[in-house]
Write a structure and sequence with these properties.
By secondary structure, the chain is an alpha/beta fold. A five-stranded parallel sheet has the order 2-7-1-8-9, with helices on both faces. The chain has a four-stranded mixed sheet with strand order 4-3-6-5. Bound molecules: guanosine-5'-monophosphate.
């Protein structure tokens, strides 16, 4: 008998704007080569330095709506008046290669994934406090005051969704938060419900 898992896991990461999801994901991907990242599609305008195909696939509204119509997205949502969505083909390709695939998506998208792919691993990144969140998003300097207000007004609603997730990681220290996420990913690979050959043997 060999014990294995035929597919990689889908790792869904959400949390309020400014909490540091992007920084944590970049650090994870740099450190661990057995994890991949799903580049989302969006209609949001690129921030300075963002590259098509790296941070996001940047599309017009019309092209994004075509992706929806053609069923090319695992999930999509309208977040802060822009469309964001997860192209399904790449995710499938990664997990078929037995690698874990990270989706950094908002809470609405995460719940859509949960309804289709309940075996995903759902991780919520929480700020140490609301004051710290405001400080971080202001310090980032990529959004206008109006945009910051819009994003902060969503925070309470997003925080209320915490109980739908499997894990919560508080991002008060980047290195510690990265290692907590890594520990979750490794533990989930050993989760007995995911070991296909064992399930088959048990019957
Ligand atoms: P930002 O504009 O700051 O890059 O992202 C705004 C929000 O959209 C974040 O909460 C981010 O996690 C979310 N987001 C990014 N990609 C996707 C996606 O593919 N689907 C969904 N539903 N949300 C996404």
């Amino acid at each position: 008998m060999s014990i294995n898992n035929n597919k990689g896991n889908l790792i869904v990461i959400s949390g309020p704007s400014g909490v540091g999801k992007g920084t944590l994901c970049r650090a994870l991907l740099k450190k661990y080569s057995d994890i991949d990242y799903s580049v989302s599609a969006t209609t949001r305008k690129p921030r300075p330095g963002e590259v098509h195909g790296k941070e996001y696939w940047f599309y017009s509204k019309e092209d994004f709506e075509k992706l929806i119509a053609d069923n090319q997205l695992l999930e999509w949502a309208k977040v802060y008046n822009n469309y964001y969505g997860t192209p399904i083909d790449y995710v499938q390709e990664v997990i078929d290669k037995r690698k874990d695939c990270i989706l950094e998506i908002d809470v609405q998208g995460a719940m859509k994934v949960k309804s289709k792919w309940s075996e995903g691993v759902f991780i919520f990144i929480a700020p140490p406090s609301k004051e710290e969140l405001i400080r971080r998003i202001t310090f980032r300097g990529t959004e206008s005051d109006q945009e910051i207000k819009k994003r902060m007004s969503q925070t309470d609603e997003e925080m209320r969704c915490i109980s739908n997730y499997d894990y919560v990681v508080v991002n008060d220290d980047i290195d510690k938060a990265v290692e907590s996420i890594r520990a979750i990913i490794v533990a989930e690979r050993c989760n007995i419900t995911r070991l296909d050959s064992l399930k088959a043997d048990i019957g």
